[in-house]
Design a protein that fits this description.
mainly alpha, Cytochrome p450, two-stranded antiparallel sheet, 18 helices, about 50% helix, about 5% strand, binds protoporphyrin IX containing FE
Amino acid sequence: MTATPPPLHGPAFEADPHPAYRWLREHEPVHRVDLPGGAWAWVVTRHEDARAVLADPDMRKDPLLGDATWFAAGLGLPYDHRDSLRRSMVNVDAPDHTRLRRVAGGAFTPRRVRELEASAERVTSALIDALVASPDPDLVRDLAYPLPIAIICDILGVPEADRPEFHRRAAVIDSASFEEIEAIAETTDWFDAYLGSLVDARLAAPHDDLLGDLVRAHRDGDLTRDEVTSTAFLLLVAGHETTVALIGNTLLTLLRHPEQRERIRADRSLLGPAIEESLRLESPLQNATWRFPAHPTTVGGVRLEAGEPVLVSLLAAGRDAERYEQPDAFVPDRGASHLSFGHGAHFCIGAQLARMEARVAVGAVLDRLPGLRAAVPESALRWWPSMIMHGLFALPVAFDRDTAG
Ligand code: HEM
């Protein structure tokens, strides 16, 4: 590696971002990076600093506190600038954050997650039936991608007839990158109108689902209508691509380590820990969402001014040698905690749901696809071109068709 900071964009970085983050951890752990549109941000890469920033209530989430350059670059993406999709827990601070999180929390209780597990098993089973019959099976396209969106439709109560269109539109939002802001504006309009129509339907007829809970809270005066639609939209944005990446990254990790895969196949108690280890090693979210210091502050010895945008690199923190022994090794029974679901007040509300979906999907692959192997060399795999996500576009595989099923 060079003596100057490596770029955090471009094909080499996307194919393997770990060397760049290692360089930053070792040489410039709080690094100023240039972003598209003339903006810049601080990137925090060491585990200890990352945890401290995530836990700090003075690291605010409200994008309106961001400095003018950041805001002008449109980095909050268009949907962040309209109240009907922006007023969600990820964009606000206490006390609004506490109120919004409490109302949505009902959708993620252990009982609700157990109910959704039955649905995840049904959907997974049908997806693997189709995958087994496919001439060019792909674990991301055929399993990791469609499963989480089906579960989000369950949570939001999207009627069956609307789901194909919902899936199609979600795919446009998922492809959003810094360069594609205009392309997703029309889709954002669609979600704005569609989620509004679901809310109207719940107002007319009560339902026992998340949207029903949110609409009841709106009726009781605890949530505004914008907060209801924004929360529904956040669940789509926060819960889809992340879970796709977790399932895809875990399956890739198991393809890279066939001996561990066989251990986990033989001893299913290792599956949960292996998913945690995959979260640490290949964090689906490369960076946590934007933060802005309320006052001038110091992180890792570097002074940050109020309003300067801060990204916490969860991917970098997961491989910090100061925190983990042999940080690049996949050790399913390591039992170490990680920051890949965040930390502090904004800790991922869907973490248990995501873990459940990954257990169901990966468990089914282990059960039903004997002789699993990659169908292309790893150098042919394409990763999302993003500093935010860390996930695969596709994962073509082969398996022993005679015994699959
Ligand atoms: C593997 C899958 C997932 C990963 C890696 C992940 C990761 C994260 C992380 C790191 C945060 C904190 C962001 C920050 O502090 O800046 C977060 C927050 C959040 N996640 Fe997840 N997430 C996943 C799945 C889900 C799912 C399935 C849902 C819901 C359907 C969900 C809903 C949310 C919400 C609503 C927040 C905001 C919480 C708040 O601001 O209080 N996530 N997630």
